[in-house]
Amino acid sequence: MHRSVKLLVSVRSSKEALAAFEGGADIIDVKDPSNGSLGLAQSCVIEQITDLIHARSPNMMISAALGEVSESTVSNAVNLSAVSHLTLVKSGLSGLLSLPTPWQKAWHRFREMTSLRHSKTQWVAVAYADERRSDSPSVMDVLEEGHRIGCPFLLIDTFQKDGTSLLDWVSQRNLDRIRRRTRDLGMKLALAGQITTGLLPQVLCCDPDIVAVRGSVCADGHRGKTVTRSRVRSFAAILGQQQRQWQRMES
Fold first, then answer.
1. Active site residue 15
2. Helices in the chain by DSSP H: which ranges?
3. 115 pLDDT above the threshold of 80
4. What tens digit of pLDDT does each residue of 180-235 get?
5. In the annotation, is 90 catalytic?
6. I need a surface site. Which of 33, 36, 123, 221 has the fewest CB within 10 A?
7. Separation of alpha carbons 243 and 251, rounded Å
């Protein structure tokens, strides 16, 4: 691990976005956690946050969660067409295996329906580690389809936020296999799913490009509460420390 692993912090308001930015986040991710793992925030909230952050750091990466493909509506897509200056967008694939049509087609229709103005906005391929209870395609299937359609990132997350973490649902061996495949395909890997500072040594073993958090940087460690600058700063410091330790071990 000879590069810096970026810290992504998910926020739901301009206040939280500012706290994440000042705390040292590398990527600001906009979502509404009350609407699920990839809950869609109102388009006005997304625009407020992008304007706020880019006024301070014009080149900072900003991503947004667009909800679950299975719950999408045309009205959502129309509202999102007004959103600009996002670096990345992502949608969840839960519930798609029960549909009569292939899940790939449902994802394709969603991407077509969600037309974003900014030509440089790219899609993230999102796979749920708890794929059985989310009725979603496997991580490897999402990885391969994501590469086929040109997604530069694969994000592995957990669908249900019930206290279990990413590592409760996917083994270190499988994560290593996924990492090798993303590297072969030239894709970057982001890991999420109730990642705490205590899990960082195991997470960093997988050599991710991004570690994504929310609950760990919220008051009392609860994702439904508010992101605080002090908790972001603390998490970022520990992440940096853990990376330096790995680099010393590898050298």
1. no
2. 14-23, 43-56, 74-80, 103-113, 131-134, 139-149, 172-185, 200-205, 229-250
3. no
4. 999 999 999 999 999 999 999 999 999 999 999 999 999 988 888 999 999 999 99
5. yes
6. 221
7. 12
- Enter the DSSP assignment of 151: -
47 in Cβ contact with 83 (< 8 Å): yes
The single residue of 31, 105, 120, 225 carrying the catalytic annotation is 31
Contact call for residues 243 and 251 (beta carbons, < 8 A): no
Kindly give, in sequence order, each residue whose CB lies less than 8 Å from that of residue 27, ignoring residues fewer than 6 positions away.
6, 7, 8, 9, 60, 61, 62, 63, 87, 210, 212
pLDDT: which is higher, 192 or 117: 192
| Amino acid found at 174 | N
Measured distance CA(243)–CA(5) in Å, rounded: 8
Torsion of CA 224, 229, 230, 233, to 10 degrees: 110
- Is residue 30 within 8 Å of 11, Cβ to Cβ? yes
Task: Pick the catalytic residue from 15, 90, 105, 120.
Answer: 90
Q: Which amino acid is at 43?
A: S
DSSP 36-96: -TTPPPPHHHHHHHHHHHHHH-TT-EEEEEEEEGGG--HHHHHHHTT----SEEEEE-TT-
CATH class given for the domain over 6-250? alpha beta
Taking the C-alpha atoms of residue 60 and residue 53, their distance in angstroms, rounded to an integer, is 7
